[in-house]
Amino acid sequence: MKNLTLPAEGGCRCGRVRLRISAPPLLTMACHCTGCQLMSASAYSLSAAIPSEAFAVTQGEPVIGGLHGASRHFFCRYCMSWMFTRSEGLDWFVNLRATMLDDPSWFTPFIETWTSEKLPWASTPAVHSYEALPAMEEYEKLITEFAGSFGGVGNAGG
Ligand SMILES: [Zn+2]
Ligand SMILES: [Zn+2]
């Protein structure tokens, strides 16, 4: 697996919204739920859970999309790329869509969720699969296990 070099920059399809992460993900995920299928226009969404204090929008103003519910899905207002999600009640991390990063080649999903709704052919290399979501009390163990398995972080320097 390629290393993640920090800080890492990213942005939407048109480049009007740019973002930066300065810490490695707490967890990486693929979600097969039908909501993610619709919003990603694909078989599943990819998320890197970035600690909130290590995530910044550096250019542009993303807007709310999706169902406009308690979990806030952020999109570029011009190109409509689905960029990141702030989940209800979970202020300490941001679920960044991994492909927004300029170089997502380090990314692999460590867990996959909602396999009960997945397209029949869709599979990922995730280590742990869940028919729905992991139980809340499982996350701490998953985060610890992921930290131990993560390929490593480079430093861009300067
Ligand atoms: Zn855009
Ligand atoms: Zn989903």
Order of SSEs, N→C? EEEEHEEEEEEEEHE
What hetero molecules are bound to the protein chains?
zinc ion
Tell me the number of strands. Answer: 13
Tally of separate helices: 2
- State the end-to-end distance: 24 Å
Structural class: mainly beta
**Based on CA inertia axes, which overall geometry fits?**
globular
Residues in helix, %: 10-25%
Average residue-wise pLDDT: 95
Question: Could you characterize the architecture of this molecule?
Answer:
By secondary structure, the protein is mainly beta. Helix content is 11%, strand content 34%. The protein is built from 2 helices and 13 strands; from the N terminus they run E-E-E-E-H-E-E-E-E-E-E-E-E-H-E. The strands form 3 sheets. The chain has an 8-stranded mixed beta sheet with strand order 7-8-9-10-5-4-11-12. The radius of gyration is 15 Å and the shape is globular. 33% of the residues are buried. The model has no long low-confidence stretch (mean pLDDT 95). One zinc ion binds at residues 31, 33, 35-36, 45, 114.
